[in-house]
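Weekly puzzle thread! Below is a chain. First person to post its structure in token form gets bragging rights.
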Amino acid sequence: MTVYRGFLTITKRNIHTMLLYLVIFLSMAIAAQKITGGNTSGFEQISLNIAVIDRDEGELAKGLSDYLSQYHTLVDLPDDPSIIQDRMFYRDVYYVVTIPEDFEERCLEGEEMLPITKVPGSISGFYVDQQINTFMNDVRIMTKSGFSLTESVSSVMENCKDEAEVTLIDKNGFGGEQPPHAFMYQYMPYILISILCYSMSYIMIAFRNPDVKRRMTCSAVPARSQNLQIVLGYATVGLGVYGVCTLMPLLMYGKSFINDPNMPYYLLNSFLMTIVSLSLSFLIGTLVSKEEVVSAVVNVVSLGMSFLCGVFVELEILGKGVRTFAQFLPAYWYEVANGLLSNNNTFSHGQQMSLYTCFGLQVLFAAAILGVAMVVSRVRQTA
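Winning reply:
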């Protein structure tokens, strides 16, 4: 078992880097839980600092301003683009709507869109968009039904004072909240890819060293046995990292994790991601020939996949184009499965099929990546 022992010896040399990634992973998971995993038993509307630039000063314009003031804090701003831009840059105001002259004729009867300025990429900005559209549509319907503008605006203002009672539906056994261990599993692809690709790449480069290759060729150990020992080393390190990552939610969340009916699915999903990460590590170790390049390549792969596939940023927030591209990456299907597991404890037939599809696609990705790595390895050996 000389080759196997050498495999583990090289792994031990990189143990400090592996521990560093584990600490980073644990810190991110805990921070995410503290930020977004708080008490969601109640519901509270989002209130923003917004500004209304009124160039019309008519009854409909005043009604819209009063309507928005029911939900947000109105900030006085001069009608000066440079000042507006400056205040938005410093986040003193998040949304500015400009009401043009002849507002009623242009936007109510002519259905012209209101000029708006909002913080780029702001999700809350879309929330204000919906409120403005709701006000305009309600007033438009009432005026076309024969009510006067005054009656229409008054009725809409009266209706907005009614408060709806919001109750979270408990679909996952955690009161509608995301389970605490789900945050840890959300970030797991990053740690699995980082640790395994980093450590395995160094091992692959070490075994391709000309002196080491000559020793292995002259050794009495058959080539078949050497390859089996390398495979055994891969399996040992992979299962070891998987075991540590599995142990952390068990130690931190205990009964909460054990009593989750989806626990076997969480374990299976992360195990499949471990296999994918091992395949990626073999491919990177085959392609990269210099130790100085390993860290850069691993960071590009792990961070790039994490940002694109919903590890660091929720999939719902990502743009349509990004999500379409991410479907060609294995971590995307891991995160889709993790989302299903964190939001449900019972599954419909369609959800079960989606979950099994995610598992199957991860297996296919692992097989495809491994196949490419073997082809590259054969070509390099021939060359």
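Puzzle host: Confirmed. Bonus trivia for everyone else. Strands lie at 49-54, 73-74, 95-99, 116-118.
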